[in-house]
């Protein structure tokens, strides 16, 4: 009799993904499951080719290709799905990945429109719904076949949780389509528009389906960093409950009242989303009043908020898919800070009330030197009966102490292309390196004191 010791994973498996392959064609990350110890695997692939979002027609063709590919896989993947193997396939700004269903945009909720227009105004490249619809006549079989040849002529791929599988995918692409690698300059992702300091902008659109209004008010803070990430998240932690209590419960502005962090293309800021029967201008005013009422917390309350945020950030994933999603987010952002939670929490514990207050005064208070504001107003094409009277009555009930002081009227955006072309772009963040992060080094030094 021979005794054989079976181990589900190496005794000292790395706690974060490791890069096991990096060449002009692909970058492969592998993470051995040493937590859930189940016979499961999560594989994520992103196939990158800038042609997929080169113009509205290419964007539509990429979407059509994905839909047809998914349809062709339905019968083939049926047996695998019965066995518990599932997949998803989406097209993105840069290509497509495994992990869009067409929707009637006009019928979406007003707050969804507000979020969409915020993204459109801040993205370096973005095609409007009107531009996409305008190119639909050119979506033909001939153009789709030509597009597919372009799409697979050059490719770059990033993968997570794949070992031998990756070799098969790359080999198949090269053998069947003669795919060549992209140039490094073709793999650069889009950047975020940098809003000007000390200026507020407003963009207004109509919704022809719903009778309610919505706004998204966004205060842009700048590039992500360990320090700013934690200061912004801590500020949101403190504002979250008072925001709902003030704007939703007391002022009854609407059923949808949200505040939180917005992050895209390595840039972040504080955002408020409201949907209401009131006029957008009134909603924006109430948000401004709330933002300026930064309560003076006691040291005990301040530490409770820090503790609550620490607990939330260090909450362990309950499923393998959740853990994989965290790592995959770092890969899609090309930051690769797989130990982000632990690193940022260590810095969070060193933050003082004075630091947070200075951060608030620097970015959000009226007259702040780095205040950058963009607000999206979505209003119904035809105001519901009584809406104007409700707004006037609400404004009349607002006391003088709750009214905002005289602040500059926001500059109205009438041409999206002209607005974006006259503003600079935020730079790309390089991949995260702990020894080059001054905030991480500082937190380590404070922790030892």
UniProtKB/TrEMBL annotation:
It comes from the Eukaryota. Pfam families: Peptidase_M16_M, PqqF-like_C_4. Residues 234-328 form the Coenzyme PQQ synthesis protein F-like C-terminal lobe domain. The keyword Metal-binding applies. This is Peptidase M16 C-terminal domain-containing protein. It comes from Branchiostoma floridae (Florida lancelet). Residues 13-97 form the Peptidase M16 middle/third domain. The keyword Metal-binding applies. Residues 395-404 have a biased composition (Polar residues). Residues 381-449 are annotated as: Disordered. InterPro entries: Metalloenz_LuxS/M16, Peptidase_M16, Peptidase_M16_M, PqqF-like_C_4. GO terms for molecular function: metal ion binding. Keywords: Metal-binding.
């Amino acid at each position: 009799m021979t005794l054989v010791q079976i181990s589900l994973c190496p005794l000292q498996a790395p706690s974060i993904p490791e890069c096991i392959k990096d060449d002009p064609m692909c970058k492969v990350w592998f993470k051995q499951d040493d937590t859930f110890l189940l016979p499961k695997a999560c594989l994520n692939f992103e196939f990158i080719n800038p042609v997929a979002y080169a113009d509205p027609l290419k964007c539509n063709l990429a979407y059509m290709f994905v839909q047809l590919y998914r349809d062709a896989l339905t019968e083939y993947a049926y047996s695998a799905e019965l066995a518990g193997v599932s997949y998803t396939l989406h097209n993105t700004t840069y290509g497509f990945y495994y992990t869009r269903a067409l929707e009637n945009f006009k019928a979406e909720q007003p707050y969804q429109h507000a979020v969409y227009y915020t993204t459109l105004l801040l993205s370096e490249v973005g095609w409007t719904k009107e531009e996409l619809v305008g190119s639909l006549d050119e979506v033909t079989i001939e153009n789709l076949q030509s597009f597919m040849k372009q799409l697979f002529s050059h490719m770059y791929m990033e993968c997570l949780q794949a070992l031998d599988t990756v070799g098969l995918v790359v080999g198949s692409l090269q053998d069947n389509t003669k795919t060549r690698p992209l140039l490094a300059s073709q793999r650069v992702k889009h950047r975020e528009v940098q809003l000007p300091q000390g200026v507020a902008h407003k963009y207004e659109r109509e919704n022809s389906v719903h009778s309610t209004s919505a706004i998204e008010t966004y205060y842009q803070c700048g590039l992500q960093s360990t320090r700013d990430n934690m200061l912004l998240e801590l500020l949101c932690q403190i504002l979250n409950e008072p925001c709902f209590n003030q704007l939703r419960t007391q002022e009854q502005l609407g059923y949808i009242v949200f505040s939180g962090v917005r992050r895209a293309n390595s840039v972040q800021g504080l955002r408020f989303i409201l949907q209401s029967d009131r006029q957008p201008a009134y909603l924006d005013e109430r948000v401004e009043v709330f933002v300026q009422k930064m309560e003076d917390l006691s040291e005990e309350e301040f530490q409770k908020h820090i503790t609550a945020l620490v607990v939330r950030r260090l909450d362990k994933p309950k499923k393998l898919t959740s853990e994989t999603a965290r790592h995959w987010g770092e890969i899609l952002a090309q930051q690769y800070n797989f130990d982000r939670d632990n690193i940022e929490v260590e810095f969070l514990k060193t933050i003082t009330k004075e630091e947070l207050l200075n951060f608030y005064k620097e970015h959000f208070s009226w007259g702040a030197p780095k205040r950058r504001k963009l607000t999206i107003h979505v209003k119904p094409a035809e105001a519901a009966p009584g809406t104007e009277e409700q707004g006037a009555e609400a404004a009349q009930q607002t006391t003088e102490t709750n009214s905002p002081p005289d602040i500059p009227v926001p500059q109205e955006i009438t041409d999206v292309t002209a607005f974006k072309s006259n503003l600079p772009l935020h730079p790309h963040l390089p991949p995260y390196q702990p020894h080059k992060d001054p905030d991480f080094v500082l937190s380590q030094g404070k922790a030892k004191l």
